[in-house]
Amino acid sequence: MGWHYLELALTALAAMLSPTTLTFSVLVLVLAKRPLRSGFWFFLGALGATLAIGVIAAFVIGDAAAPAHPSGPPKLGVAVFDVVAAMFLVALVVYYLRRPRDPKREEKAVAQIGKVADSPITALLGAGAALANAGVFIPVALKDISELHPSTTAYIIEWVFFSLVSLLPLAAGLVLIQAAREWTERTLHTVRNWLIRYVRIIGAVIVLALAASMLGNGINGLIHA
Fold it and tell me: Which residues contact 89 (CB under 8 A, 6 or more apart)?
């Protein structure tokens, strides 16, 4: 089971360093006139949407992906999912690392957040749910937790862990703004581009480690199918 916990941790870290999530999380704090208010509701929207998915999955999926024996190979369907998902994650990393910087795309992201940065609470909640969720890593995390043979309560607890880690940069920004607003806002403005550029490289390493873990798990399941 320790292998599955490691894979879940890698999935949560990969979601946390997702370029899309990180970009929108930084922008909502940088562009809003009241960053603490906007960031809080944006965070709550993202967290609420992610938690809702996990709670539903706890009842619908449960331990369906768990192997027949705790130390046994994964089920055939899980093994196929792991191999396909691993190949997709590798392709995703290659795509993001090879994609040149596009000022128009960056301007579009700024404009998208600029429209809602100081909007009513409902708009911020919706924007957070749509723009700062864990995206492609959600199905992987759902599978990871299901493989742990969890009870419904345990599934929800593990999902809360995943959800909070995936939104840690935004949560950390909110805490820093509360503690030292001027310094935090000035720092975010200064290092925004650097942060997004270099965290993407770190994220790519973590995603590749996750893909390697899933590929090994998938091949093991296919061999023993």
Answer: 136, 207, 208, 210, 211, 214
Q: Count CA atoms closer than 13 A to 165's CA, side-chain side.
A: 17
Please write the tens of the pLDDT for every residue from 150-180. Answer: 999 999 999 999 999 999 988 988 888 888 8
Nearest to 18 by CA among 203, 211, 212, 208: 203
* Cβ–Cβ under 8 Å, residues 155 and 146: yes
Contact 19, 196 (CB under 8 A): yes
Q: Are 21 and 133 in contact (CB under 8 A)?
A: yes
Alpha-carbon gap, residue 54 to 157, rounded angstroms: 9
pLDDT above 90 as % of the chain: 39
Pairwise CA distance, residues 101 & 112, whole Å: 18
